[in-house]
Amino acid sequence: MAGRDRGPFIAGNWKMNLTLPEARGLAQKIVEAGAELRESTIVLFPPFTALAAVGGTLAGSAIGLGAQDLFWEDQGAYTGEVSGPMLKEAGCAYVLIGHSERRQVFGETDETVNRKLGAALRSGLSPIVCVGEVLAERESGRTIERIDAQLAAGLRGFAPEDLERVVLAYEPVWAIGTGKTASPGQAEEVHAHVRRRLEERYGKDRASCAIILYGGSVKPANSYPLFKEKNIDGFLVGGASLDAGGFVGIAGEALRAYREEK
Ligand code: PEP
User: Fold this and answer.
1) Which of 57, 28, 51, 31 is nearest to 42 (CA)?
2) How remote is the CA of residue 236 from the centroid of ligand 1, in Å?
């Protein structure tokens, strides 16, 4: 079964939230729950300003650190931007690219996603590339068309070996922060399609090992049925990742589904 030889991958996107003491406190609670979550991969994405503090709290634990964005150049006169080498130096192993909030609020395009993907790989970071349709696209039957366009342009020019470090996240925009979750069937349909596209580009073995996350109002109550779907390898969690109990609950429910299948 695709992706099921490893436990769930659970990423917490803290967005533009938390003071430094709050960020440290939340990270500490997740570290303390780490023993229960041993078979999963947990990665936290605090704001840039909290990377060092959260990295310090996570030191010595199995929980990974990631950033919410990066710039496509490595250094230079780009006021306000943060580069891949800077994130590496700050202790990050992962970086989010093309989150729908970056696309919708900050003008991120498939072209900039592609450039940022190159920068992340060059810096030795594992990118999580986000794709997803808006409500009008879903309602007019253009979901797959939109996902295909984002994948084709975002992944253009990368070699099969590059895929090994790339995580994909399907995040229907209408489900992010809205409380509306895609049903397991709706999410699985897109995940299976994404895996087929990866297979066409990079071959069966690489596609079956690729990690494809679902994101959009994930909570403990829907984590289990979503993770039961064959092509859903874990979650990118926004709002619920700000509460240790909710976040750990999501990971725990995904683990329950994983253990049943082992
Ligand atoms: C996200 O920010 O990637 C996300 C999925 O948010 P939420 O879980 O709040 O919908």
Assistant:
1) 31
2) 7
Would you name the residues annotated as active-site residues?
99, 171
Residue range 171-180, pLDDT digits in tens: 999 999 898 8
Atom number of ligand 1 nearest to Cα 235:
5
* Predicted TM-score (pTM) of this structure: 0.96
CATH of the domain at 59: 3.20.20.70
Range of the domain at 167: 42-261
Looking at the domain assignment, is residue 7 inside a domain?
Answer: no
Q: Helix or strand or coil: residue 79?
A: coil
pLDDT tens column, 30-55: 999 988 898 999 999 999 999 999 99
Q: Is the dihedral of CA 19, 178, 235, 80 positive or negative?
A: negative
Q: Is residue 111 part of a domain?
A: yes
User: Is 135 domain-assigned?
Assistant: yes
